[in-house]
């Protein structure tokens, strides 16, 4: 039987104690835990769960609050996402449990939980900060993308739609071609050789001519389906996907 003194004033910890793992007496500055030697690993796992769900969660919430580019709600979302990802990794490799086991297997008689989190988990907290930063960058990029879509959409809606339809043909190699109803490429060789990314050119051309109808063929071959989703978002109600293979010439009534 091991007798371990845990220094902590957090009464939330009592939720994690189970009679199967240890017997606990509550004291004024912590808890006295009586653990059988064969239950040391389970005891460490129990403490690890507590630290992840309380101390680490509080740390992430405190860290993300410092991001002035996001709202309070967004910062809470980032903290929750970072914790969720870390907990997923934890299921395969629990760093906290391993560090606790290293301490208690050496017959340590007492431990401050707050001190353990502050000093023994420095590297883990550093990694968690990097993870939270990545989640924040992803959210900011998503927000900027949505703002960009709304801006282009507003610009398109201000223009009078062209009566002449266009179509986007996705080649089997995954590239996109912008063609008129006669099958002629709309983008000139000079435009395509200007050093601008082909899909950026495609989007720019569509916004400029603002067609009333855009027919999209062979979508399944696309190497960049995101640009097609972007076009659908900007030209709401104007994009018509055609699932079957298509080749010119089309019947005159097809474009009506």
What would you say this structure looks like, in words?
Helix content is 49%, strand content 15%. It has 8 helices and 8 strands. The protein has helices spanning 40-64, 72-90, 95-104, 113-120, 122-158, 189-192, 198-209, 225-234; strands spanning 2-7, 22-27, 30-35, 110-112, 166-170, 176-179, 214-217, 239-242. A hairpin with a 2-residue loop joins β2 and β3 (30-35). α1 packs antiparallel against α2, α1 packs across α3 (95-104) and α2 (72-90) packs across α5 (122-158). The longest helix has 37 residues, at 122-158. The protein is elongated and about 85 Å long. The relative contact order is 0.09.
Short description:
The protein has 256 residues and is of the alpha/beta class. 49% of the residues lie in helices and 15% in strands.
- The chain-level structural class is alpha/beta
The succession of helices and strands, N to C, reads EEEHHHEHHEEHHEHE
- Helicity range of the residues? 40-55%
What's the pLDDT, averaged over the residues?
88
Question: Could you give the count of β-strands?
Answer: 8
Distance, first to last CA: 85 Å
Question: Which regions contain 5 or more consecutive residues with pLDDT less than 50?
Answer: 251-256
Q: Could you describe the largest sheet, including whether it forms a barrel?
A: 4 strands, mixed
Strand content: 5-15%
Number of helices: 8
Characteristics of this structure?
256 residues, alpha/beta, 4-stranded mixed sheet, 49% helix, 15% strand
SSE arrangement:
Blueprint: E1 2-7, E2 22-27, E3 30-35, H1 40-64, H2 72-90, H3 95-104, E4 110-112, H4 113-120, H5 122-158, E5 166-170, E6 176-179, H6 189-192, H7 198-209, E7 214-217, H8 225-234, E8 239-242
Parallel strand pairs: 1-4, 5-7, 7-8
Antiparallel strand pairs: 1-3, 2-3, 5-6
Helix pairs in contact: 1-2, 1-3, 1-5, 2-5
